[in-house]
Design goal:
The chain has 100 residues and is α/β, with parallel strands linked by helices. It contains 5 helices and 4 strands; from the N terminus they run βαβαβαβαα. The longest helix is centred in the N-terminal third of the chain and has 16 residues. The chain starts with a strand and ends with a helix.
Length: 100
């Protein structure tokens, strides 16, 4: 299954590192995931082209609003602090697999 995944955080910096680690993990697992990171402000530019939206745990208070700003078909996931804080891309990929 091919998936377009977008990670958002406040500025896009920490999620950029996480996206890179997730791309490596997905490739190693043989998954066809296109993973990119953007700032929260850019979400509307990408909302119609994604299958999965992953939101940084520090945006938990805005999660519901972000969820409503993407089409219903988009799976929205609030990333867990335990893997996000250590930029564990493999754990994040497993989280996606458990939701799609």
């Amino acid at each position: 299954m091919s998936l377009n995944v977008l990670l958002v955080c406040g500025s896009g910096a920490s999620s950029g590192f996480m996206a890179a680690n997730m791309r490596k993990a997905a490739k190693k697992a043989g998954l066809d995931y296109k993973i990119q990171a953007r700032s929260e402000a850019e979400l509307n530019d990408y909302a119609n082209d994604i299958d999965v939206l992953m939101v940084g745990p520090h945006l938990k208070s805005e999660f519901e609003a972000l969820q409503k700003s993407v089409p219903d078909k988009v799976v929205t996931i609030l990333m867990k602090p335990d893997y996000y804080s250590i930029l564990d891309g493999a754990a994040a990929v497993e989280h996606i697999k458990s939701k799609v």
